[in-house]
Amino acid sequence: MSNYQTNIQCQADRFKALSNPHRLALYQRLCTCCTPSTACTPDEATRFCVGDLGEGLDIAPSTLSHHLKELHRAGLIAMQRNGKNVECWVETDTLQEMIGFFHTNLTIKD
Description:
CATH architecture: Orthogonal Bundle
Strand order of the largest sheet: 1-3-2
CATH topology: Arc Repressor Mutant, subunit A
Radius of gyration: 15 Å
CATH class: Mainly Alpha
Number of helices: 5
Distance between the termini: 35 Å
Number of strands: 3
Number of domains: 1
CATH superfamily: Winged helix-like DNA-binding domain superfamily/Winged helix DNA-binding domain
Strand content: 5-15%
Largest sheet: 3 strands, antiparallel
């Protein structure tokens, strides 16, 4: 498989993970790490505890866990245990790759 095909498959897997409304809402919440149109480093990215992340989204804890696992599997988020809590944050490098994917493949026609 060529690098181009591998990249396309990787992006497709990411977008498939984001195609679920709950996962998209979770990812959007995680992407609030910095001002729009700017990039933040992994150290600057806002970390959410799993329990806090689901607040207001009306998602059962077991379902929340499943959605976070799918986002993690797609490489969209990172997760780390911190004592009794599990923290999640957006993988900023992956986010930048996705932005680059659209930027290089976007052609605006009149």
